[in-house]
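The instructor's notes for this session suggest beginning with a concrete chain rather than abstract definitions. Hand out the sequence below and ask the class to guess, before any prediction is shown, which regions might be ordered.
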Amino acid sequence: MNDFPIFLSIVLVVRNQSEALNLIITEISNAISTLVSDYELIVVDNSSSDDSVATLKTLTAESGLPNLQVYALTKEVDADTAAWVGLENALGDFVAIIDSLVDDVQFLPEMLDKAVSGADVVFANNQKKPPQSLAYRVAYAVFNGLYKRFSGIHLAKEAPQYRVLSKRVVNFILQHPQPSLTYRHLPATGGFARVNLNYSATPKLSRTKRLGESIDRGMRLLVSTTRAPMRLVTSLSLFGAIANLMYSVYVVAVGFLKTDVAPGWISTSLQQSGMFFLISLVLLVLGEYILHMVSLSNEGPLYHVGQEFTSARITRREKLNIEEVALTVPAALDTKLERNP
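After discussion, reveal the predicted structure:
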């Protein structure tokens, strides 16, 4: 029996998990097959270097799993971009993004219950975290603190990765010029009906997260989704102008009140002040923005799908245009057949 009469899309990002792929995908497929009327499981292979793609091809064969859609990327991208590959190709009324190593698919019914009750966005935050290094935890706390100050939301608590989005939210994100970068925070800041849930499940992640893996991702997210860095530029410029003006007044006052001023001090002292530091800092921030704009215009797409294949069996297609009709012979025709054998 189906608990929810909806079409659900599940997005799953994998990389170098060939040995566990069969178990992971089968577990998710079994969990949702009786949960909703129709479903599709979208697997994005983030440029695995093992036999993950071959395993996925086997799973989509005639004897494999139904409703499986696979996108194999040609190069590794960040987790948000890989997840967006699945999101923008999803067809479901609702889309769920699951990290198989951290998120618990058994909590999905509670999330769907909130979604079908009217919530456009349902976030689920696992209270148990995977192993993290001390440096990672400190940087993670600092980043989330800064992001909440700049944007008003705490990404880790208020917009975690495990989420269910309605098709309306996905279409809204599609209108943004950088959906793969902003899909992480837009559902929480777009004004949609939102529900945040908490649960506790032991993550399956075995390796410890390192700081270096998330620095680039955090910087891109901070620079591309908030105005705070540019506000910093304007604030520093304003502070530098005021400080320069005050120092100029001081130098002029010294020139009028002191008679033993060294020749050329008034002109050179302004050039030797701390304004060099402020100017350098402003140029650094502006340079980051310039690099960001150049990357958008010159680097091309953030990802490229090298292979795409779908399950040989799609259950929703089997339900289309099928009508059971009882074959009956009219009585008059039956009598005629008896007379004219």
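Then share the key points. The chain has a mean pLDDT of 78. The radius of gyration is 29 Å.
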